[in-house]
Amino acid sequence: MKEIKVGLIGFGTVGKGLAEVLLSQRERLARRTGMSIRLAGIADHSATALPERFAGIPLSKDGMDLINNPELDIIVELIGGIEPAKTFVMRAIEAGKHVVTANKALLSQEGADIFAAATRKGVEVGFEASVGGGIPVIKALKEGLVANKILSIMGIMNGTANYILTRMTDEGVPFAEVLKEAQKLGFAEADPTYDVEGIDTAHKLAILMTIAYGTPITHKQIATEGISQIEPIDIELAREFGCRIKLLAISRNHGDHVEARVHATMVPQQHLLASINGAYNAIHFQGDTVGNILLYGLGAGMVPTGSAVAADVVDIARNIASGSIGRVPALSYLPEQMRPRRITPMDELCGPYYFRCTVLDQPGVLALVAGILAKHEISIESVIQKGRKEIGAVPLVVVTHSAKESAIRAALDEIGKLDSVTGPVVKIRILEEE
After folding, report:
1. Are 356 and 423 in contact (CB under 8 A)?
2. DSSP 3-state assignment of 302?
3. What's the pLDDT tens digit per position in 127-143?
């Protein structure tokens, strides 16, 4: 039986998950692949000893010890961040080793260099776990949907943000309180910026767009907003409008240009994405031949993500055994077929909007706001004025008909400068099905 030896750099949560999966599923994998897939080395700068069940595996503090080991076939990078992760990945590729990573930040920022190097050296890069945790979304997009023109990508791709919004919606808990709870439970990092400000979601959307459209995309090209401005009143009003607020990644394919955005969105309750709660993820694709596809599951966690990393290891092991390295291009498209495409400027987008501002409780304020909206050719669908928030001030809520983003921005900037407006204007886009 052929043996494939794997080296693991990073023995944190996901690294331990991979080790557990390879150990517990060793016999099953052997039956399914006809190979012995063995974790033959672990490197972690802070590890001093391995759990007893992994005691027979060599442990190093330096990832280069694994990369320089000629017996290892596959290097798995699970340390996260840009450096030293990129250096380890590039050195492994230059050493002729196949690479597996779950590092969405690295791929969404430095992927072009990594995939180009892998093509030159004739090695494979697996990255299933970079998007959706245990959900096999990359494989579905690269292989299962290969006969489709992908018309749109839409999804909930960050479990931390979704957990926070779910608790706010179901139990009325304020954002700051839920965030502290999520940090205590381990759902949120000590610095939650990437999760709650949409950056982590933008990394994942960039990877999916690159595969779906054959267009190199980095997260810096994606318009990104988070959920930290959402308050319980917004959650309550969304419910009154028949919606739930979700942090969505949205991309639509317009042919010569593609949308790329991440932001809080009011999702109608009848939409499938409105029912995705807790730490779960769901990713929706629309293909021109297959129609609508929704993939759902745990988007993070030790064993689910370890399962996705193991799937990449097995895919590469099979390709090594069958002599078919490069059978499926890393990004689905052949490198020479990748084409740049214009990203639709946010100002060009149209749709309905919700906005809330705190105003002085005095005559004429609503007329001023309505006048500004009319000046920017924005039609009002409904207006709600809630009870007093503080003495002399009330929240004013407006829902618009479809309007251009540039007009909404200009109008809200003007409204925010009114003497009668006492706090920042909160804007939330409303999902409009095409």
Report:
1. no
2. helix
3. 999 999 999 999 999 99
Which of 62-66, 145-149, 381-385, 413-417 bottoms out in mean pLDDT, i.e. has the lowest? 381-385
Only one residue has tokens 């009011």, namely 266
Taking residue 322's Cβ as centre, other Cβ atoms within 10 Å add up to 9
Q: Identify the bridge partners of residue 153 per DSSP, sorted by sequence position.
A: 251, 285
Number of Cβ within 10 Å of residue 361's Cβ equals 17
First and final C-alpha spacing in the chain: 53
Helix, strand, coil shares of the chain as percentages rounded to 5? 40, 25, 35
Quick check: 159 and 300 in contact, CB under 8 A? yes
Per-residue pLDDT tens digits for 64-79: 999 999 999 999 999 9
Length of the chain: 434
Q: Which of 204, 386, 389, 404 is catalytic?
A: 204
Which residue's structure tokens are 């802070």? Answer: 46
CA nearest neighbour of 99 among 78, 77, 119:
77
For the record, the structure tokens of 120 come out as 């030159």
Kindly report, residue by residue over 231-276, the tens digit of the pLDDT: 999 999 999 999 999 999 999 999 999 999 999 999 999 999 999 9
Any catalytic annotation for residue 204? yes
CA distance 200 to 132: 11
Tokens of 292: 């609508």
| Angle at CA of residue 324, ends 319 and 330, nearest 5° | 75
136: closest CA among 315, 290, 279?
315
